[in-house]
Amino acid sequence: MVDISAVDISDRLYTAEAVRELDRRAIEDHGMPGIALMKHAGAAAFKALLARWPSANRITVFCGGGNNGGDGYIIAALAKQRGLLVTVLQLVPADKLTGDARRAWQFACQADVSMAAFQGTMDNTGAIDVDSVDVDGEDGGEVIVDALLGTGIKGQVRENYVQAIAAINQSASPVVAIDIPSGLCSDTGAVRGVAVMAELTVTFIGMKAGLLTGRGPALCGDLSYHDLDVPAQIFEAISVSAQRLNLPDLMSQLPRRDRDAHKGKFGHVLVIGGDEGFGGAAAMAAEAALRVGAGLVGVATRSSHVSALLARRPELMVKPVDSGQQLEPLLAAPSVLVIGPGLGRSPWSEQVLQQAINSGIPMVVDADALNIIGEGRVGAGADTRSWVLTPHPGEAARLLNISNAEIQADRFGACKALQRDFHGTVLLKGAGTLISSGEETLSLCPYGNPGMATGGMGDVLAGIIGGLLAQGLSADQATQLGACLHGAAADRVAEECGERGMMATDLLLPLQRLVNGK
Predict the structure, then answer these.
(1) Range(s) for CATH 3.40.1190.20 in the chain?
(2) DSSP three-state, residue 10
(3) Helices and strands: H and E segment counts in the chain
């Protein structure tokens, strides 16, 4: 486990309720007036805007009625004072504003900011008429500021905000979202009907969990964080919902290699999979286990794949297994099993999975092994405490008997539910991969990119985790480090070659470099 007290504040992920509590304590317990925090937030956001778009000469600020809108009024005033052309489009009339939001509006009025009510309307085709909303960005110098909803949204986005969000998204101008893209749930990363698509999001005080998983990474663009100089002791008193992992810190968990080390010290992984036509999946998992440092790696697969696997990677010990009975004697030697890559869902698949479960050996359970378990015919009553389960959202949905959409609507809740039902350690794949080992605080992997949306990536991840388990890491450590190595290797490939066309096997050499600190 990672010690939360040692985690950087920006790596602590909070719910909206927790951030409101941080804000309240800063105001009430530490004498930081709300309007002062709001001005500090507006200044930080405006500074980030200028750093990203230094040639901006005009900004259009969409302001809602709450504190998020107040941040927008502050930004508008600062931009006006700097000499930019500024327009505020109001979703809530000024006479309806209260508290700090009204004080921020008054600050913008004192700066002589031009303001108008948002007038976007729907035509009979369902398109937004934004002719009266000057957000086309044709001169290349405009930036749109989304200060509509913030973290306080409950339920679906209301119609007038739907129209404003559509106007923002239809614009050709770049968008900076204040605190969180409007319409995105800050707790889960799910979209509340519609959401702003930003190129930059500037978030404050507490990092919102939903920015980093689900639809969050796709909608927030680049992410900038500012703690607004809130005292550090406030953060220590508030529970986090997840922690963002850091690869350099996790690398310290890899055991040191003595100069007289031999292969027996680094574990024996057996990959079980590769039904007819799926031998490549087992091969990729096995190679990944080798590349992260496992001492011995074997593959138990269909006899038709043996020659191909040995020709590709002679370092592997490949055994033909055409029945569950043939697998049984091979289970005496390995210290870790990786089962699922290319396993299929045939009677053979069920037989070898049952033998693997009966062995009691720690397992990484992936792909069709999860699907078979989800069907309930294999694995009922098994001791799963030493398992690492690695489902993607579809597999998670089958395990929990709910829909894929329900998984994605609350990935944090789904990951916790999987761990509660299946014990062991659970890794829920996707943008912002989540890991739960039964603790209240989940872990989130911030590495990876869209190039990983291709076949075989999950097989490589399963092999990585198996290889780390074999070297003596705990299930939690191996899963956290494995997820981060996997994503970081893909990021290196993307940096060198681009995301499009990335293959799972492209990660193997970067993986070796990463585990060696290179």
Answers:
(1) 266-515
(2) helix
(3) 19, 21
Structural contact between residues 360 and 398, judged by C-beta atoms closer than 8 angstroms: no
Angle, helices 67-82/34-52, rounded to nearest 10 degrees = 60
Largest CA distance in the chain: 82
What strand order describes the sheet that includes 222-226? 114-117, 85-90, 58-63, 142-147, 175-178, 200-204, 222-226
Q: In sequence order, what are the residues at sequence separation of 6 or more whose Cβ sits closer than 8 angstroms to the Cβ of residue 138?
A: 172
Quick: pLDDT tens for 290-335: 999 999 999 999 999 999 999 999 999 999 999 999 999 999 999 9
| Greater pLDDT, 273 or 126 | 273
Render pLDDT for 158-210 as a digit per residue (tens, 0 to 9): 999 999 999 999 999 999 999 999 999 999 999 999 999 999 999 999 999 99
Q: Tell me the backbone φ, ψ of residue 107, rounded to 5 degrees.
A: -60, -40
Res 6 pLDDT > 50: no
pTM of the model: 0.93
Where does the pLDDT of residue 141 fall: very low under 50, low under 70, confident under 90, or very high at 90 and above? confident
The number of CA neighbours under 13 Å toward the Cβ of 271 is: 41
Joined tokens for residue 507:
């990660």
- Least confident stretch, 9-23, 68-82, 288-302: 9-23
Contact 349, 372 (CB under 8 A): yes
* CA 131 – CA 118 distance, rounded (Å): 11
DSSP 184: B
Tell me which DSSP letter residue 191 carries: B
CATH of domain 266-515: 3.40.1190.20
pLDDT at 130: 45
C-alpha torsion sign, points 88, 90, 95, 96: negative
4-241 fold = Rossmann fold (3.40.50)
Closest CA to 297 of 320, 312, 281, 313: 313
Instruction: Supply the pLDDT for residue 125.
Output: 34
135: helix, coil or strand? coil
Residue 150: what residue type?
G
- Residue 103 CA, distance from chain mean position: 36
Asked if 179 contacts 151 with a C-beta cutoff of 8 angstroms, the reply is: yes
In whole angstroms, give the CA distance from residue 18 to residue 202. Answer: 18
∠404-406-412 over CA atoms, to 5°? 105
* φ and ψ of 217, to 5 deg: -60, -30
Q: Where in the chain is the domain with CATH 3.40.50.10260?
A: 4-241
